[in-house]
Each structure stands twice: as structure tokens, then as C-alpha cells.
Design goal:
Elements: H1 15-24, E1 28-30, E2 42-44, H2 46-65, E3 70-72, E4 77-79, H3 80-86, H4 88-91, E5 93-98, E6 105-107, H5 108-126, E7 134-137, E8 144-147, H6 156-167, H7 174-183, E9 199-202, E10 206-209, E11 215-219, H8 224-228, H9 231-237, E12 244-253, E13 268-278, H10 288-291, E14 295-299, H11 301-304, E15 312-315, H12 316-321, H13 328-343, E16 351-355, E17 367-375, E18 378-387, H14 391-400, E19 406-423, H15 425-432, H16 436-444, H17 448-461, E20 464-467, E21 473-476, E22 481-495, E23 498-505, H18 506-517, E24 518-521, E25 524-530, E26 541-545, H19 550-566, E27 570-572, H20 579-587, E28 593-597, H21 599-604, E29 606-611, E30 617-621, H22 622-634, H23 639-643, E31 647-648
The structure holds adenosine-5'-triphosphate.
Length: 657
């Protein structure tokens, strides 16, 4: 018999109810709350932690196990030299503006966005349309900074201009944001005071390693550098071959200027990152066929620069085939990520892939797409998928002089023209003395293009400057260095792999999942239901007993023992409230199944099982019900399929229904 279905979309989303339920049922809460809290730091409670652990388990299964990735767990405290080399010390910054009188700080792009959105909202109000307020939290969480809207009608051309700016708000540089602040007379929304020009604020938390204070470190802002600095070992572990991927789940820290929107912009969060190393001349993926028919919702960069946000539905195969997504490997990860997010319960209708615009993308990146998930806060980046080219491995290799490169035996040897460098060792040593080795290494380390430039200059001008890592420039002449073309037969190829990086913000995904799973029954709007897929639900089975009779309590104990043995998380609700209330309370935790023990259980060994979304109930022998639950939890059957094996229960219905 088919199980009843429920139309969740018919119920209106109530954010206030969801927020109070998440706090009441301790999914997560502000850290140090009894001390007043600090913006951007959160603690996860029992349900939030279990939900996160289950999502991460799915992630490990979906990527690490399924794709045979090499898992890492690298240190969080990172040597400053590593982050200098990667560019984070200089560039990992956001733009902030200050109130010119009281020094209050805003993140520049967020402020421009909030003010323009508030003006558009005011325009809508003036036209009789109502929307929510835009809110930022201040640092001590004592007050909310509100950008209030006033019902003022805008010119149609202004509306179009604001919408166009908002569609590409991530694309502005600091000076451009400054121009927007001036052009649109944006002031501090709380005081009305003028704002300073945007200045950069580095987002990393700095620290010292050891007591001397000489070794500088930072809490890592991403896990990626831990992969790159271990590349040589990983390559060796993989028998010297690419492609392969490393993966890591761990904490990252960013001293956000303005934490806001709950878990969406915090200062400490869990990331799950993959670095897939690939031959730059061959970015095909061996398993591309498995995802080529996955449909993505794409928002390409050329649409955004026109100030538009319309999307197209396209298969991964077509997106790569038409050159919209740069290469197969990047397309492969977009497809796999779409599958992962929907598998854990993200609504595909509220999921899109947005391509980075030119200013948004790092200069070295070949292509970059964000998975954005829509929630009550709008479209939020939750996973970034970037082709980072050879940048990371090259900069670490140059800085450390370690060859972070792949040596690949060629199937058929090839004849190539190369530039050969010969030094007059004696004359070179006499001229440069202790610097001779450094200059020689710098010249032999030049790539073919730079070597050709040096040769051209020596041929033409008879002298050329060579800049070494110490910043000094040394003049060399053709009598000291001879560069000549030669023909060689190569048996090996030597290259720096390119890196394709999918980077997941787990907190953002969790929060989006909570919103997408939340609804309320028509009969009991104050109590919500979280319709998590079984695989991520924090607790899989609620066990309740109709009475405190010791015979029933004994069976409850037996049931929990058997579920534990199956590895299934269960929870007994032995409070004194009605069974219907117990069900309703556990709907709030997203528990998909409820098993009820009653006097029939004592007599003939049967229990009832109830499904959370449909509230339909079935009856069966204990072991049949448990094996059904086991199959459901393993994902081998769905409720409609599983219920067919049991009998419909026609007893008393839930109070909550
Ligand atoms: N402050 C934060 N709080 C929670 N998650 C974050 C935060 N910053 C980044 N993330 C998550 O980490 C992922 C990878 O980080 P990435 O550096 O690509 O983000 P980002 O582009 O800096 O994000 P944003 O532009 O929103 O600040 C993001 O997709 C997001 O899910």
C-alpha cells in the first residue's frame, strides 16, 4: 500500500518561528551567550552537532570514498611565510568605511548593498509593496544595525541603475566602492555622518608561535594551503601520477568586519575542501560521462555584467561543450556538487551556479563558479568551485625551491628545441664571488620564455640584468653566460599541475538546509517540522511507550539496544506528555521515524511505526519494523516502498494531526 504524501510547499515559511525553534531545540546558539556573546561566533548543540556530523559523513562518502581522494588533517595555526607566499598576508582583505566622526565601521560593499536595497525597498513601499528590513549585527551583539527604508519613490532610471549595481556588487574594487558611496550620498545609516574612503582590512587572526614572539603565525582562513605545502608527499603517495585529489575537513577563521545573518557570515567555521591536481594540457575527467546529464541552473558572467540575474537550465555536458564552463574537470565537480547538495536535502529549485565576474576572480584563476543557495537572506555563496591554474604550487615552489612538479614518462619520446645554458664557471665565480651560485640558480630556474628574453638581450645589447630572490639585480654578459638552442629527445615531461578546487562552507549549507527543510502543519503552526532526508537527520528513531508499565519499559530498553547494535541513532522520550506531543516535539528535531510500544507489544510482539512528514502509521513485528528502519536508514528503500511490507495501523491518531 502506498504511503500518504504531504504538500509542504503549501505552508508559508515563518522565519521567526524557525529561529525560535532552532534556539529552543539547541541546534546552535551564540557562543559565550551568558557573557553577552560576540558577533560571528556560535556553538552547536546536540542536534546541530549531529546534523553537521551526518552532513560531513555524507560529504566524506560522496567525495573522499567515492572518488578515492587522499584525506588530510593539517594544522590550523599556519606559519606566516606560507600565507605570505600564497598572497593572503597582502591581499586577504575586505574594504571597510568608517564614520568620519564616531569611527563606527561598516564593510563597504555590504553597506552600499544594504543602502541601495533599502532605497529600492522604500520605492516598493511607496508603491504599496511590503518587504523585510536589512539587518547587520554589531560586534558585541548588543544591538542590531538597521538600514531603515523610507517610503520614497525613485525614478525608473534610478531603480534600473541600483538593480544593475546590486547584480554585480561583488565585482567592485575598493576605490570603485568609494565612488559609489560618493555618487549615491551614502552616509552612516545610524548617525547620518559622512564616511571615509574605503580602506583594506585583513581578515586573518594573527598570533605568535612560541614564547619569543619571533615566529609569526595566523589562524588559517582556509584549509587549502595545508594541501599545497604537502603536495610532494601526496604526489609520492599517489605513485607520482596525476590526476588525483586531496580532501580536508576542518576549521577556518576569518575576522569578518561585519558578521551577520546567523551562521552565514561568522568568524570561525567548518570548511570541506578538495584540491584536484590535473595535467594543464589535459583537463578531461575519466568519469565525466557519469555527470554529463546532471542539470545545473547557471548564471553566467556575461549576464551579470549586463546587470541581469536571469538563469538558464543546462546539462553539465552542454555547459562544458559550449565553453560556458571552462573544462571537463571543473564541470565534473559542478555536477557532483549539485548531486551532493540535493542528496542532503537542499531544494534544487533554490540552488544556482553563479560564475565569477572578472574583478571578482583572482587574476590567476581560469574559471570560477559559486553554488549559491537561496534562503530568507537571499542568494548566498555556499560552495566555491575554482580552477586555480598552477598558481599555488608555483608560488610555493619558487619560495621554497622545492620542485612541486610532476615528472611524467612519455609514451613516445619527443624531439624538442630547447635553450641550453652554459656558464664560464671560473670567470663567473671571479666576478660574482659568494653570489655566483644564487645568480646561476636563478638563470637555470628561468622558464623558456624568460630565458629567450635573456638571450635576446645578451645578443642585442651585450649585457642584461638578472634579478635574484634577494631583490638585487646582477649584470651578466655573453662571455659569462652562453644561451644556445639545442635539439634534444625527451623521454620525460615535467609540469606543474593545475588545481581545481571545490570549497564548501559547511555552516552556510547547514543553515540553508534548515530553512529548506522547515515547514509547519496547518493544525499546529507554532510547532515546526524539519523534513531532513533520513541520511542527515540527527536522530533517526524516536521511541515512545504508551505507559510506564515495567513490561513496556523493558521492551523499550530492548529496542534501544537493538537499534544501537544496528548503528542507528535513537532517542527515548519518557516524559509525561501525550504521545501526540512527543511526536510533534520530535518533528521539530527532524526525527523521521517514531516507534511506539503498547500493550499489544507485550501480547503479540508488534509495534507501530510512524513517519514524520506524512504522519502515516504502520504496524509490524518488532524485528520486521527494525529491519525496515535499517533499510530506510541505509537508503535502500523509501517510506512508500518500506511501508508496503507492514500493515496499516488503524488505532488512535496523533494528537498533533
Ligand atoms: N565568514 C564566513 N562564514 C561562514 N562561511 C564562510 C565565510 N566565509 C566563507 N565561507 C564559506 O567558505 C566557502 C569558501 O570560501 P571563499 O573564500 O570562496 O568565500 P568568499 O568568496 O570569501 O565568501 P564571501 O564572498 O561570502 O565572503 C564559501 O563558499 C562559504 O561557504
Amino acid at each position: 500500500m502506498a504511503a500518504a504524501t504531504v504538500n509542504k510547499s503549501a505552508h508559508e515559511f515563518d522565519k521567526g518561528n524557525l529561529d525560535s525553534m532552532l534556539t529552543r531545540r539547541f541546534f546552535f546558539a551564540p557562543a559565550f551567550e551568558i557573557y553577552g556573546g560576540v558577533a560571528g561566533l556560535y556553538d552547536y548543540g546536540p542536534t546541530g552537532s549531529a546534523l553537521q556530523a551526518n552532513v560531513l559523513n555524507e560529504w566524506r562518502r560522496h567525495y573522499i570514498i567515492e572518488e578515492d581522494m587522499l584525506e588530510l588533517d593539517t594544522t590550523i595555526m599556519t606559519l606566516s611565510e606560507v600565507l605570505k607566499t600564497s598572497g593572503h598576508v597582502e591581499k586577504f582583505a575586505d574594504w571597510m568605511v568608517k564614520d568620519s566622526k564616531n569611527g563606527e565601521i561598516y564593510r563597504a560593499d555590504h553597506l552600499v548593498e544594504a543602502v541601495l536595497e533599502a532605497r529600492l525597498k522604500g520605492d516598493k513601499e511607496a508603491r504599496g509593496i511590503k518587504l523585510d528590513e536589512v539587518v547587520e549585527e554589531d560586534d558585541k551583539k548588543k544591538k542590531k544595525k538597521k538600514v531603515k527604508s523610507t517610503a520614497v519613490k525613485l525614478e525608473d532610471s534610478e531603480v534600473a541603475e541600483y538593480e544593475s549595481i546590486l547584480a554585480q556588487i561583488d565585482n567592485y574594487t575598493g576605490p570603485q566602492l568609494g565612488e559609489l558611496v560618493r555618487k549615491f550620498n551614502i552616509t552612516n545609516p545610524t548617525t547620518g555622518n559622512e564616511l571615509t574612503e574605503p580602506v583594506e582590512f585583513n581578515l586573518m587572526f594573527e598570533s605568535n608561535i612560541g614564547p619569543t614572539g619571533h615566529i609569526k603565525g595566523f589562524l588559517r582562513p582556509e584549509t587549502a594551503q595545508g594541501h599545497f605545502v604537502n603536495f610532494a608527499r601526496l604526489l609520492e603517495f599517489n605513485n607520482g601520477k596525476v590526476p588525483f585529489a586531496s580532501a580536508q575537513i576542518g576549521r577556518s577563521f576569518r575576522n569578518e568586519i561585519a558578521p551577520r545573518q546567523g551562521l552565514l557570515r561568522v568568524r570561525e567555521f567548518t570548511m570541506a575542501e578538495i584540491e584536484h591536481y590535473v595535467d594543464p594540457l589535459d583537463k578531461r575527467h575519466a568519469r565525466f560521462n557519469e555527470v554529463k546529464d546532471v542539470v545545473l541552473t547557471l548564471l553566467a558572467k556575461d549576464i551579470q555584467v549586463q546587470g541581469r540575474t536571469d538563469t538558464v537550465q543546462m546539462t553539465v555536458g552542454d555547459a562544458v561543450g559550449q565553453g560556458i564552463v571552462d573544462n571537463e574537470t571543473l564541470g565534473y565537480f559542478l555536477g557532483r556538487t549539485q548531486l551532493f547538495l540535493t542528496k542532503i536535502g537542499i531544494d534544487p529549485k533554490r540552488l544556482r551556479c553563479r560564475q565569477h565576474m572578472a574583478n571578482e576572480m583572482a587574476h590567476y584563476a581560469a574559471d570560477c563558479w559559486d553554488f549559491e543557495i537561496q534562503s530568507s537572506y537571499g542568494w548566498i555563496e555556499c560552495v566555491g568551485c575554482a580552477d586555480r591554474s598552477a598558481y599555488d604550487l608555483t608560488v610555493h615552489s619558487v619560495r621554497t625551491k622545492q620542485p612541486l612538479r610532476v615528472q611524467q614518462r612519455l609514451e613516445t619520446p619527443r624531439v624538442v628545441e630547447k635553450l641550453d645554458v652554459q656558464f664560464d664557471a671560473k670567470a663567473f665565480g671571479m666576478k660574482f664571488k659568494k653570489d655566483a651560485a644564487t645568480i646561476r640558480n636563478t638563470i637555470t630556474g628561468l622558464d623558456e620564455e624568460r630565458l629567450q628574453c635573456l638571450k635576446d638581450e645578451l645578443d642585442k645589447a651585450g649585457v642584461s640584468g638578472v634579478k635574484c630572490a634577494d631583490g638585487k639585480v646582477y649584470e651578466v654578459t655573453p662571455d659569462l653566460v652562453k644561451i644556445n638552442p639545442i635539439t634534444v629527445t625527451e623521454h620525460m615531461r615535467d609540469f606543474t599541475p593545475n588545481v581545481i578546487e571545490p570549497s564548501f562552507g559547511i555552516g552556510r549549507i547547514l543553515y540553508s538546509l534548515l530553512e529548506h527543510s522547515y515547514w509547519a502543519r496547518e493544525q499546529d503552526k507554532a510547532r515546526g517540522v524539519l523534513s531532513f532526508p533520513v541520511n542527515v537527520a540527527p536522530i533517526k528513531v524516536l521511541i515512545v511507550s504508551i505507559s510506564n508499565d515495567p513490561k513496556l519499559t523493558e521492551i523499550v530498553y530492548e529496542l534501544t539496544r537493538k537499534l544501537r547494535k544496528l548503528g542507528i541513532a535513537s532517542r527515548v522520550d519518557d516524559s509525561s506528555v501525550s504521545i501526540g506531543k512527543k511526536y510533534a516535539r520530535n518533528d521539530e528535531l527532524g526525527t523521521p521515524f517514531g516507534i511506539t510500544v503498547d500493550f499489544a507489544t507485550v501480547q503479540n510482539g508488534t509495534v507501530t511505526i510512524r513517519e514524520r512528514d506524512t504522519t502515516s502509521q504502520y504496524i509490524g513485528k518488532i524485528d520486521d519494523v527494525l529491519s525496515t528502519v535499517d533499510e530506510l536508514v541505509k537508503g535502500n528503500v523509501d517510506w512508500a516502498g518500506a511501508a508496503g511490507k507492514l500493515e496499516v495501523y488503524s488505532g488512535v491518531q496523533d494528537v498533533a494531526e
